[in-house]
Amino acid sequence: MKVVIIGANHAGIAAANVLLDEYEGHEVVLIEKNDNISYVGAGTALWVAREVENRNDLFYTESKDFEDKGARILMETTVDRVDYDNKVVHAVTKDGEEIEESYDKLILATGSKPIEPNVPGKDLDGIHFLKLFQEGQAVDEELNSDKIEKVAVIGAGYIGVEIAEAIQRRGKQVLLFDAMSTSLSNYYDEEFAQLMDKNLADNGIDLHYGELAEAYEGEEGRVKAIKTNKGHYDVDLVVNAIGFRPNNDLGQDHLELFANGAYLVDRHQQTSDPDVYAIGDCATVYSNALQDTAYIALASNAVRSGIVGGHNVAGTDLEHVGVQGSNGISIFGLNLVSTGYSIKACQRFGIDVDYVEHEDVQKSPYMSNNETVKIRIVFEKGTRRIVGAQIVSRYDMSATIHMFSLAIQQKVTIDTLKLTDIFFLPHFNQPYNYITMAALKAK
């Protein structure tokens, strides 16, 4: 069987590795329009902040690794269309050569595209996005200039907040804009997001929430100011981090789509065309919190969907267990982690929920190097199953969220959690720790 994979980043790489490492006899062809693969975009801010010295450390594999396994990988090759009726992929190489690749099974791993504000001045120099390695490189090089003093970051989601911290660490003044009333609004309720906002402000980030960009203004072709619905600000550089939309360019006229344009897939990653699979940010996922199809673009989800897709393409019947959208962020020493849905998200999706929360120090009070931890557990009123959790602390409590992720996946109730066996040792926690105490508050 010949399998063509379009897109060779996290999802495409995972699928290719499954096919090459665990099955024999398949011809595997990867087509990638970029000149690199496996870039860990989540590390861009670390590199810009110089917390990672060598940017090459943000790549975990290369095209030669797949060639050594017997695959063909076509780099800097752009697919312009797919003939689904005849099962042929049409592409153009970097030298302008038109090529065709037939397939028995096709895997679409085309990822997502940055959302671009459609406002006057959007084509000025000095306005950047953060998706590809080259885009991170361009921002990093701009920050080396003494002429760059004031930077506007548009969007206070994970990427926006992370790059705002990184740019501030490079000695620049940062203005952080978002249309919502807090940062991180897609993942955290206001009481938690506001703790991050205070942390950002305390560390010198100039916050501008509830503001929408209306225009970019420039001089001699380069951005010099941003105009919003609330003010006018002189800036030397703009970084857009509004979010992403699924890249459905190759299949939107052939395949069934989700409400936001993502390829609609079943839990085997199969699209409405039985010979076409979609994985990663271009495809939907099954949300265990929602108990329905959703769109959650995360690298961790992309890898898992690639593994599932690879096995199913090879003939192994493997159903995806679903996702919770688990995530985390660490900014100026403050750590937030979440999984499932916040109260605000549950309201948006029509899930009737209640919640409990608790705040206490992590370790026994007599221990040194102790930090306060705040937790909120969200559960459905009728079934009492846990549908979300949020935790914030300056202590690294990130591993705790994995338990809540599994709880959502397995439909664990808040009442089961009340007496769950959680070990105690003063070095790590308290006998009445914050997880138990929060669960016990559920009436």
TrEMBL record:
UniProt-recorded Gene Ontology molecular function terms: oxidoreductase activity
Annotated Pfam families: Pyr_redox_2, Pyr_redox_dim
Reported cofactor(s): FAD
Domain Pyridine nucleotide-disulphide oxidoreductase dimerisation: start-end pairs: 334-429
Top-level EC class as recorded in UniProt: oxidoreductase
EC number, as in UniProt: 1.6.3.4
Catalytic activity from the UniProt record: 2 NADH + O2 + 2 H(+) = 2 NAD(+) + 2 H2O
Name of this protein: NADH oxidase
Keywords recorded for this protein, A-Z: FAD, Flavoprotein, NAD, Oxidation, Oxidoreductase, Redox-active center
NCBIfam families: NOXase_Strep (NF046103)
Annotated ranges, domain FAD/NAD(P)-binding: 1-306
Family in the record: Belongs to the class-III pyridine nucleotide-disulfide oxidoreductase family.
